[in-house]
Amino acid sequence: MGEPAFDIAVTVLGSGTCVPRLERSSCSVLVETGGRKWLIDSGAGTLRRLLEAGTSHLELSCLLYSHLHPDHTGELVPLLFATKYPEGVSRREPLTVVAGRGFADFFTRLKAVYGSWIDLGPEGFRIIEMATDGRDHLRLHGVDLHTAPVEHTPQSIAFSITGPAGRRVVYSGDTDTSATLAELASGADLLICESAFPAALKTRGHLTPAEAGAIAARAGVRRLMLTHFYPACDEADVEAECRQTYQGPLTLARDLMRIVLA
What we know:
Elements: E1 8-14, E2 28-33, E3 36-40, H1 46-52, E4 60-65, H2 70-73, H3 76-84, E5 95-100, H4 103-114, E6 125-130, E7 136-140, E8 143-149, E9 157-162, E10 168-171, H5 179-184, E11 190-194, H6 209-219, E12 224-227, H7 238-242, E13 250-252, E14 258-261
Parallel strand pairs: 3-4, 4-5, 5-6, 10-11, 11-12, 12-13
Antiparallel strand pairs: 1-2, 1-14, 2-3, 7-8, 8-9, 9-10
């Protein structure tokens, strides 16, 4: 028997950071909804995890980027290079990238280095930039994407993805405490939220488990998943810290974990 019908399915491809680890690839999440596959961020290890999750890079409809740091964009170049080769193997439709303002310039600079190796041409690749100074909205392939700026870099945005049946997933990207993230996540079925460091190692631009929990509680989300763990998180009681501020259903992300929202 196959998997029951779902509105949105989420597979964690990378629950880690820039620190290389066997058990945690860098940041990446696969979202399946509306009959299409959406990849959010593509840090180191993403392409291998994608295969382990049973998906080819050629099946991806859209790439969503929360910001431009290497642990979130590191496998964009390999993904595009793989898409061009071998000859005779091609995508069924153009690949769309959705990211904050500044991505087009970033990609122009990448092409200055890699040239035709990553150039899919205007018929095979397009970029849609979202506002970084306020909320924004895009309807793409029958799916509603809402974005909001968060507290990390000038290009940083969080994503809200609403499936055809109304289930909604919010992905924080990297952020410090953020009122706009709480507003974007209001009432979401699942908030995938970074929780990079335990409280004892609080770092500017990132959340602790308790801070992530406070955002989830304020937003009234139905389920919280913490992710983007630096190694110090494995030595701390992340769940206990989060429970200081959030009492709802809680999941600690691990690579290849899958959550289905029916």
